[in-house]
Every structure is written in structure tokens, then in C-alpha cells.
């Protein structure tokens, strides 16, 4: 993209104003809007939530001269997040939103894996992708079998609904969830933007499942959310471990703001809903305002040039389209990969190379696996598996 | 940068069905049907798991402790009274929510403007007023029985969970009048049966005066049901130009 982030100053922070009415606009339509509009809303909500989360963490660890600028930007991000997240409509149930979250995890991570210049990092994204891919299948089974609804109403044919790396084998010991990190001085800027994006997105997914899991009445739904939230925790552990620990907090903040500009710009480029596109456009300008404010802080407080770590122009944005073929190829080639320390190994070697994960998983699954129970024998079928008469009430079922 | 409007692709109606994109749909079906589930079985596995929890026997909640009888044990009357108070509490909760539902319906009709077919603003105010009277009557009755009208009883709680969707429809600015009436029909059908059950309970427990009050409320509710059903039917037929 040709946006010069050093020249474009965006909207100054003191001009980033909201009213409640402005923040809470008419939502998008669950039925009529394109699934990728919903994907973008969920992703950007996740990125804003992450900025607020990490800003608070910074404030708690460095409650000095940084705290006021952190508080000022955080307030704008709070209202941006509200404006974005409130675009989701009230008729989108928590489980439907979950289906959409998994579509975000699959399609966005697939695009990132394809664009990632560092082969090791790309491998990590492909590894995580196949796990979220399986989550979509498990939640789709839950939706069909417990709620009597069709996940494809949400994903609109773009994303496959079939098993990936089985969720029950995704449970790993922490020793096998940490990855190698990039080195800030030599890493491609896109590698940094990717790591910040996917970490934020997965953290949002974790927090969402932890919030809505108890809202379900059905015990297997409650168990499934407990199980998949645990994997999302692992994913946050995995993705955040890809970032250079030697980056200063201010450097990480600067990167996050650049990442937000990058992603809002991508949303703006792809958006099909004109009203939502206007919001993305406004958010690009707001994030440029934040970016320039943090650039100044970076110069003043660390005596460093932001150009050391930021690219002049932003890379090509995340590609908001179906990645079916790429996901299938990855599935065929890598579904049997398992983690061993920071590396990957074939499942046949896992007992020898990852004994801690095997023990951890066996203990967790020792009283049954929710993800296996919910999807036992499940094949997604247009509408519902009931069209195949798979029900306790089907003729002869009780015989 | 200046805001840009104009989509690459205009909104093209409902996108939820398979026919929105036949080629993608075909790929989706082909992929799903060729995949092998990671374990055997079917939906009965979920039922089995749910059964384990059902068997544990935890309730949603309970009624407040009744004052102990002289013998120290609940007698038959007290058991009957506990059930009665639970159902009274349920009806009270439902009528209270009913007032808010009709307030939301009034708001919708005031904004959209009265139009035939459908209720007039006066019609809605009339029903809402009666729902309020029923709520106040139940409040009084529970108090006279020595109960606490502010208690959320188990049946009241379940009634609230059951009608969550009705309130979501009524307060959604995007829902149409016929969609709201469809939701209100569910409320009125339940309300009618709820009053009938309360009358049976009052009759069996020998509360004749109360039974008479409940019969008056039921007569109101029967009128609400007939009206809502007719408005809905007329609105839908009218929208289909029939």
C-alpha cells in the first residue's frame, strides 16, 4: 500500500471525538452483510481490545511519565473499540459469534501464513491455523446438534467445515507451546505486524470464550467452551512468544499502533458495506494520529528514530477472501504435525519428543473429551444433519 | 485522508443460504462430505453427557424458607402454598415484563405511526394498562399471603429465561411491527395458560376470592390474545397483498 505513514499525520488525538450516539450506530445485518465484513469487525475489535489490555499492563509496570500519554490514547481506543464492536447486531447469538470468531482465525491466519516472509513463523501460523480450523468444525456440530442451527448461515460458504488437527490432541504442556522469537533488528516489518495482529486476535478469542462459556445451559457446550478456551490460551502463549523480548515497551507500543493503521487500512480497502467503510476510513486517520504521537514519544524518551523499526510504506494488507485451497493443502500436508519445544515433529515421534504434552493431554482427557463427544460421527450437511435423518426421532433410531 | 464511500460490491440481500455462491457451496459440500469424523457415534453422545449432569440433580434454585409450622415440618398446606407462591411469582414476573414489552411496542408504533391493519396506540395503551393492573394485583396478593413480591422464584427465573428472546425482538429498532406481534403472540399464549393454571391452583387450595380476581385477569388476557392474533394475521396478509 502506498500510504506513507511518516507523511500522513491522521487526526490529532485531541480531535478524536465521540458521542454515545456516534459510537453506537445501527449495527450491520447478520443476514445481508458479507461474512468478511463481520470478520473485519471482529478482528479490529480484537486489535483494539489488545491495545487497551497491553496499555494497562504498561501503565501498571511503568507508572511514571508514560502514564498520561498511555491514558489519553487508551481512552480513544476504548471508544474506537466500542464503535467497532457495537457494529455486531443483537440477533447474532454468542454461538453464532463464536462461529464468526473461528472464521476470523482461519481466514486471517491463512492470509498471514501465506504472506509471512519468515518460513519458521509461517510454519507456526500454519500450525495454529489447523487447530482453529478444527474448532470451527466442533462448534458447528454444537450449533447443529444442540442449538438446531446451521453454521454456514454465518460463514457463507467461504470456509470449510470439517475436522482439522483434532482438538483433543491440541492440548500441550507449556514447554511445547513456546516458539522462537523474531529479532527486532533484522526481522521484516511484516513479520512484526503479523505477530502483533494474530496475538491480539487470539487473545480476544480466548477472552470471549471465557466470558460467554458460562452463558450456555447445555453441559457439553460449557465443556466445549472450557476446552477450546484452553487451546486459545495456548495460542496466545504461542503467538506472543514470537515477539522479540528485547523490544522496549515503547517500541512494542509503536509497533502496535503501526499494526492498527495497517489493519484498518486493509479493512478500508476491502470493505463492501459503505457505512462500515466510512468507519474504517475514520479509524485509519485516528490510528495515524496515535502512531505519530507515539513516534514523538519514542524520539523523546528513547532518543531513537522510529524509521529504525517502521517501514516507510505499509505492506500489502491481509487478504479478505476464502483461502479454501491453501487451508486444504496445509491440512493434507501438516495435520499430523505436533509441537516439540519450539519446533514441530510428526505425531509418531511425539511420545518420544514431547512426553510432557502427552502426559498433560492424557490427564485432561481422562474423563472424556468434549470436542470428540460433540462431534461424534459428525459430517456437516447443508442446513443440518437432520436432512440425513440423523436424530433420536428418526424412524428405527430407538430400535 | 478523506472518507471514501461507495462499495466495490453493493449489498445484495440475504447471504445466508447455499445459493448465495453456488460454486463456493459446491466446494464446501464436497470437502465436508469427503472428510472423516475423528470419532464414531452421533448426537446421542451429547445426550449421554448431559444425562450425567441431569443425574447429579442440582436445581435451578429454591423458594425462600417458609416460616416453620408448629410441628416443625412442612405440612401439606405449606407444600401447596410453596408451589402456589412460586407460580404467583412467575406470573408477577411475566406481567411486569409484559408491561415493558407493551411499552416497547407502543414506542415502535408511535415512531412508525399508526397504520391499518394493526393496533392503534390506544389499543396498546389499553393492554399495557391491564398488564400493569395484573402486576399490581399479584404484588398485593403475594404480600397478603405473607410472601415477598420482590423474590425471584425458580419459576419466575425460568419464565425470564424463556422470554429473553421476546424482549430482544421488541427492543430491536430494526424489528418490524408484524415481527413484534409474532413475539407478543408467544407471550400472550403463555400468559393465557399461566392464568388458567393459577385459577386451578387457587380453586384447589380453596382461595375463592382470589380465584375470582384471577378469572377477571384471564378474561383480559383472552381479549389480548384474540387481538394480538388478529393484528398479526391481518398485518401478514396485508404485507403479502392478500
User: Remind me, CATH topology of the domain at 84-239 in chain B?
Assistant: Ferritin
Strand and helix order of chain B:
HHHHHHHH
Terminal-residue CA separation of chain B: 52 Å
Outline the biggest β-sheet of chain B. none
The unreliable regions of chain B are 1-11
Strand order of the largest sheet of chain A: 1-2
Shape of chain B: flat
Number of strands of chain B: 0
Task: Output mean pLDDT of chain A.
Answer: 96
**Residue-averaged pLDDT of chain B, rounded?**
91
CATH architecture of the domain at 84-239 in chain B: Up-down Bundle
Which structural class do you get from the secondary structure elements of chain A?
Answer: mainly alpha
Tell me the name of the CATH homologous superfamily of the domain at 84-239 in chain B.
Ferritin, core subunit, four-helix bundle
| CA gyration radius of chain B, whole angstroms | 25 Å
Structure description:
The complex is a heterodimer of chains A (399) and B (242). Chain A has 399 residues and is mainly alpha-helical. Chain A has helices spanning 20-23, 35-61, 67-85, 94-115, 119-147, 152-155, 189-212, 219-240, 249-270, 274-302, 324-334, 350-353, 355-364, 370-374, and strands at residues 337-340, 343-346. Chain A has one domain. Chain A contains 14 helices and 2 strands; from the N terminus they run αααααααααααββααα. In chain A, a hairpin with a 2-residue loop joins strand 1 and strand 2 (343-346). Chain B is mostly helical and 242 residues long. Chain B has a domain at 84-239: Ferritin. Chain B is flat, with a radius of gyration of 25 Å. Chain B starts with 21 loop residues before the first helix and ends with a helix. Mean pLDDT of chain B is 91; it is low at 1-11. Chains A and B meet through helix 6, helix 8, helix 10 and helix 14 of A and helix 1 and helix 2 of B.
Amino acid at each position: 500500500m502506498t500510504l506513507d505513514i511518516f507523511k500522513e499525520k491522521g487526526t490529532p488525538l485531541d480531535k478524536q471525538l465521540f458521542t454515545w450516539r456516534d459510537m453506537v450506530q445501527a449495527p450491520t445485518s447478520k443476514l445481508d452483510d458479507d461474512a468478511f465484513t463481520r470478520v473485519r469487525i471482529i478482528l479490529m475489535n480484537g486489535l483494539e481490545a489488545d491495545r487497551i489490555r497491553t496499555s494497562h499492563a504498561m501503565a501498571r509496570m511503568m507508572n511514571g511519565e508514560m502514564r498520561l500519554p498511555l491514558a489519553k490514547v487508551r481512552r480513544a481506543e476504548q471508544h474506537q473499540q466500542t464503535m467497532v464492536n457495537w457494529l455486531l447486531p443483537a440477533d447474532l447469538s454468542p454461538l453464532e459469534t463464536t462461529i464468526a470468531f473461528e472464521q476470523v482465525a482461519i481466514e486471517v491466519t491463512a492470509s498471514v501464513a501465506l504472506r509471512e516472509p519468515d518460513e519458521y513463523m509461517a510454519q507456526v501460523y500454519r500450525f495454529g491455523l489447523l487447530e482453529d480450523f478444527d474448532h470451527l468444525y466442533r462448534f458447528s456440530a454444537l450449533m447443529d446438534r444442540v442449538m438446531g442451527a446451521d453454521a454456514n448461515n454465518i460463514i457463507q460458504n467461504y470456509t470449510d467445515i470439517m475436522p482439522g488437527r483434532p482438538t483433543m490432541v491440541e492440548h500441550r504442556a507449556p514447554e511445547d507451546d513456546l516458539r522462537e522469537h523474531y529479532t527486532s533488528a533484522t526481522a521484516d516489518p511484516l513479520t512484526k505486524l503479523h505477530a502483533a495482529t494474530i496475538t491480539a486476535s487470539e487473545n480476544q478469542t480466548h477472552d470471549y470464550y471465557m466470558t460467554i462459556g458460562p452463558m450456555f445451559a447445555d453441559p457439553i457446550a460449557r465443556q466445549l467452551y472450557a476446552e477450546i478456551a484452553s487451546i486459545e490460551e495456548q495460542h496466545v502463549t504461542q503467538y506472543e512468544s514470537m515477539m522479540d523480548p528485547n523490544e522496549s515497551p515503547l517500541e512494542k507500543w509503536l509497533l502496535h499502533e503501526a499494526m492498527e493503521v495497517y489493519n484498518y487500512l486493509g479493512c478500508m480497502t476491502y470493505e463492501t458495506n459503505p457505512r462500515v467503510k466510512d468507519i474504517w476510513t475514520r479509524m485509519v486517520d485516528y490510528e495515524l494520529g496515535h502512531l505519530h504521537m507515539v513516534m514523538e514519544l519514542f524520539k523523546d524518551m528513547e532518543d531513537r528514530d522510529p524509521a529504525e523499526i517502521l517501514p516507510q510504506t505499509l505492506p500489502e494488507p491481509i487478504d479478505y477472501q476464502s483461502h479454501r485451497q491453501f487451508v486444504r493443502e496445509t491440512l493434507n500436508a501438516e495435520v499430523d504435525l505436533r509441537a516439540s519445544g519450539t519446533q514441530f515433529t510428526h505425531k509418531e515421534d511425539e511420545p518420544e519428543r514431547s512426553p510432557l504434552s502427552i502426559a498433560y493431554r492424557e490427564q485432561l482427557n481422562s474423563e472424556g473429551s468434549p470436542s470428540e463427544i460433540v462431534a461424534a460421527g459428525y459430517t456437516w450437511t447443508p442446513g443440518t444433519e437432520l436432512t440425513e435423518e440423523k436424530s433420536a426421532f428418526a424412524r428405527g433410531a430407538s430400535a | 485522508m478523506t472518507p471514501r464511500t461507495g462499495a466495490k460490491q453493493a449489498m445484495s440481500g440475504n447471504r445466508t443460504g447455499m445459493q448465495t455462491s453456488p460454486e463456493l457451496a459446491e466446494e464446501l459440500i464436497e470437502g465436508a462430505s469427503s472428510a472423516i469424523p475423528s470419532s464414531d457415534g452421533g448426537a446421542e453422545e451429547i445426550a449421554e453427557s448431559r444425562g450425567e449432569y441431569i443425574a447429579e440433580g442440582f436445581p435451578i434454585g429454591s423458594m425462600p424458607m417458609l416460616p416453620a409450622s408448629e410441628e416443625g415440618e412442612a405440612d401439606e398446606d405449606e407444600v401447596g402454598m410453596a408451589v402456589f407462591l412460586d407460580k404467583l411469582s412467575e406470573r408477577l414476573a411475566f406481567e411486569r415484563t409484559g408491561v415493558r414489552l407493551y411499552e416497547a411496542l407502543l414506542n415502535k408504533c408511535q415512531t412508525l405511526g399508526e397504520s391499518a391493519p394493526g393496533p392503534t396506540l390506544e389499543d396498546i395503551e389499553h393492554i399495557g394498562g391491564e398488564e400493569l393492573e395484573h402486576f399490581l394485583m399479584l404484588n398485593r396478593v403475594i404480600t397478603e399471603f405473607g410472601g415477598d413480591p420482590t423474590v425471584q422464584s425458580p419459576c419466575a427465573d425460568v419464565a425470564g429465561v424463556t422470554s429473553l428472546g421476546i424482549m430482544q425482538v421488541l427492543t430491536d429498532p430494526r424489528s418490524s411491527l408484524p415481527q413484534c406481534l409474532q413475539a407478543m403472540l408467544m407471550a400472550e399464549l403463555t400468559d393465557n395458560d399461566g392464568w388458567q393454571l393459577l385459577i386451578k391452583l387457587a380453586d384447589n387450595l380453596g382461595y375463592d376470592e382470589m380465584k375470582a380476581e384471577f378469572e377477571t385477569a384471564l378474561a383480559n388476557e383472552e381479549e389480548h390474545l384474540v387481538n394480538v392474533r388478529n393484528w398479526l394475521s391481518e398485518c401478514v396478509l396485508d404485507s403479502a397483498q392478500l
